[in-house]
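Lecture notes, unit on binding sites. The following record was shown on slide 14. It pairs a sequence with zinc ion.
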Amino acid sequence: MNTSVEFWGVRGSIPVSSSLYNDFGGHTSCVSVTHKKNIFIFDAGSGLRDLGEKMKETGINQATLILSHMHFDHIIGLPFFAPIWNPNFQLTLLSAHCYEKGGLKKFLENYVFKDPLFPVNLSQIPAHIKYIDCPPRESLTFFQDYRLDIAPLNHPGGGSGYRLHCPEGPSVAYISDTEHVPGHDDPNVLKLMHDTDLVIYDAMYTEEEFSKKYGWGHSTWTEGLRLAQKAGTKRLALYHHDPSHTDDILLKIEEEAQKLWAQCFMARQGMKISLL
Ligand SMILES: [Zn+2]
Ligand SMILES: [Zn+2]
């Protein structure tokens, strides 16, 4: 297996927990892409904790964590990510979100690793952390041959979508959280999706819900399908599920969506798929 994608948290807004969420899971946004020995993580929602435990078990000592934006559901797992407490761990933290707002390190110092929100300061974290603040429109190269494309999304306070190209391997687009304008193609989103092997897309609402939530910064599964097909995407993971969407609701949506396009599926916590 060359490249694998694992969903550690697929929920938006807030973690949920009850027997109504057994199939799809309750952790918030976190997805890993593993290609050879390199691991790229998209977002640090509550699902990041489980990934950290797995990495501890397997002895992985480096990772790149890419943040879409700084809403709680995308960063709440960071203080509980076990590798940051290991002095031999090398973490690269990347985001476009703080580029014009003082930088990622300052944000974490001022708003996450600080009393009274958390009892340990950022300077006391033992892992080696490298911070990359990149402009929201950029292409970056890592480890000489991985490329990351970045584009701004339509979300309150801003946010970025990403596309990771693995060398001689697949590409994965991570597009969460974003609101579409009905009847208009978002060129940033289409560009990130173009000819991608897998797109992970903010499908928080049904069309009916969306009509009551303009300005909330999220999209629908129907828009995800429309854009992915237009962009020539191979597979589409519907992601960032609304906390009110129980297993029954998500299963019904998945059935409806797959009737329209068999290449789409609802992302589930614990799901692992291989590409290539
Ligand atoms: Zn979110
Ligand atoms: Zn958000």
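Take-home: The mean pLDDT is 96.
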